[in-house]
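Incident log, structure service

09:12 report received: a user says their structure output differs between two submissions of the same chain.
09:20 pulled the input from the user's history:
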Amino acid sequence: MLRITERRLGASLCACAAALALAGCSSGGSSNGGGFKTTAGGLVATAAVTEDGIGLSANPETTSAKIDVKSDTVEMAFTGGGLDGRKILFEMSDDSDGVVEGDAVAASLESGEDAGNLTALFEEDKAAFAGYVSIEKGDWDDPEEGDTVQLYALYGSNPAHKAHSLPGANDELSYEGRLVGVATDGPASAGSVIGDVAITANFGDGSVEGTIGNLKYEDDSDFGGGDIAFAAEMSNDKASYAGDTVTMGGASATGSVEGGFYGAEAAETAGAIFAERDDNRLLGAYRADKQ
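09:34 re-ran on a clean worker, output below:
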């Protein structure tokens, strides 16, 4: 079974140009005495085999998920989109350095779904999680035209943490963390990536700016699009943010970002991003800690 989350794909990639729809919804998360409620969200993309190869394009679904991590399993409960109302159970295959990986148990899959995988940034003592789920249709050891992988980049709160609050009204906070996702580099390669995230959030003017760098595939090669930067604006209650100002390799790109704040006095932030410029594309989810 080929996991798009584990290796680069040698097949030719079609240049699918698709508009991004990135949306989040309330997770029903925890509130503090001041009424602060965490948010959850996510975006969806499709990797599809065509006569030209494998292409990655955005999907206009709205989705979010809640996470429940036990000793050797992870359950994701979905709201919205094609997985609305479903709970998918993953058996952990790896849990190291804050990255959890798992394989969907067969009973969680529906007819036509051949495999499912999870890669998540999750630690028990952290207030937020971020990661992505892939649902495969077809034999991805030997993909054929018509085979697809649905990719869900997700973020939200860790249900074990109930106390979430915001900082001072004019505070400016800096965050550092990681991103996991899927990227493409033109018509020859695609696969999972991991990178570094740096974010500045100004709770005075409501601005959020971030950079994603050091993006590498699992064979340690660099993502060809270079560093990605974004700018976003906070919601009225300052609990979340969203924006569509994105650059890739220092040049203007198409994309969107969305995220929220978690923990005591916004100790963490997590979110999802899609960015594309020419044949370079990135779909990912990130989690970062206040510095």
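09:41 both user submissions now match this output. Likely a transient worker issue. Closing.
09:42 reviewer note: The two ends are 40 Å apart (CA to CA). Residues 240 and 260 are 4 Å apart (CA to CA).
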